């Protein structure tokens, strides 16, 4: 009689992964790049770790707020209006300080180009 070959079990492996799923994090290099752009002086490792924790908590809170604003509006996609409402609640955007002015004042040119539409020849608007 012909017997079917069975694969050998790999020792130490079970069907389930042993790792716990990790929360996504902002890249340390991104936080360091943005922070060093604004601080313009050397920062100790301990101070940078605190900045890292604070930025992580800030973005967690911001994302939960944006989720709440979006679901309250009956949508499933976060829009620029939701971001503006969040910044208004924080006091960053006012009638005298619109979101575009904040973007132009505080962000480098490559980020400004991504966030603010730019008119170019041929009546095209980018992005």
TrEMBL record:
<comment type="similarity">
    <text>Belongs to the CENP-T/CNN1 family.</text>
</comment>
<feature type="domain" description="CENP-T/Histone H4 histone fold">
    <location>
        <begin position="24"/>
        <end position="118"/>
    </location>
</feature>
<keyword id="KW-0539">Nucleus</keyword>
<protein>
    <submittedName>
        <fullName>CENPT protein</fullName>
    </submittedName>
</protein>
<dbReference type="InterPro" id="IPR028255">
    <property type="entry name" value="CENP-T"/>
</dbReference>
<feature type="region of interest" description="Disordered">
    <location>
        <begin position="1"/>
        <end position="24"/>
    </location>
</feature>
<dbReference type="InterPro" id="IPR009072">
    <property type="entry name" value="Histone-fold"/>
</dbReference>
<dbReference type="GO" id="GO:0051382">
    <property type="term" value="P:kinetochore assembly"/>
</dbReference>
<dbReference type="GO" id="GO:0007059">
    <property type="term" value="P:chromosome segregation"/>
</dbReference>
<dbReference type="GO" id="GO:0000278">
    <property type="term" value="P:mitotic cell cycle"/>
</dbReference>
<dbReference type="InterPro" id="IPR035425">
    <property type="entry name" value="CENP-T/H4_C"/>
</dbReference>
<dbReference type="GO" id="GO:0046982">
    <property type="term" value="F:protein heterodimerization activity"/>
</dbReference>
<dbReference type="GO" id="GO:0000776">
    <property type="term" value="C:kinetochore"/>
</dbReference>
<dbReference type="GO" id="GO:0005634">
    <property type="term" value="C:nucleus"/>
</dbReference>
<dbReference type="Pfam" id="PF15511">
    <property type="entry name" value="CENP-T_C"/>
</dbReference>
<keyword id="KW-0158">Chromosome</keyword>
<dbReference type="GO" id="GO:0003677">
    <property type="term" value="F:DNA binding"/>
</dbReference>
């Amino acid at each position: 009689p012909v017997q079917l070959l069975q694969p050998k079990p790999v020792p130490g492996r079970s069907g389930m992964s042993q790792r716990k799923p990790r929360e996504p994090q902002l890249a340390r290099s991104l936080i360091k790049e943005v922070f060093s752009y604004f601080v313009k002086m050397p920062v100790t490792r301990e101070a940078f770790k605190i900045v890292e924790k604070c930025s992580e908590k800030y973005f967690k809170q911001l994302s939960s707020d944006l989720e709440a604003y979006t679901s309250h509006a009956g949508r499933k996609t976060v829009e620029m209006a939701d971001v503006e409402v969040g910044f208004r609640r924080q006091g960053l955007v006012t009638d005298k300080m619109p979101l575009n002015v904040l973007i132009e004042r505080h962000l480098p040119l490559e980020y400004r180009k991504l966030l603010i539409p730019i008119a170019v020849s041929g009546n095209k608007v980018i992005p």
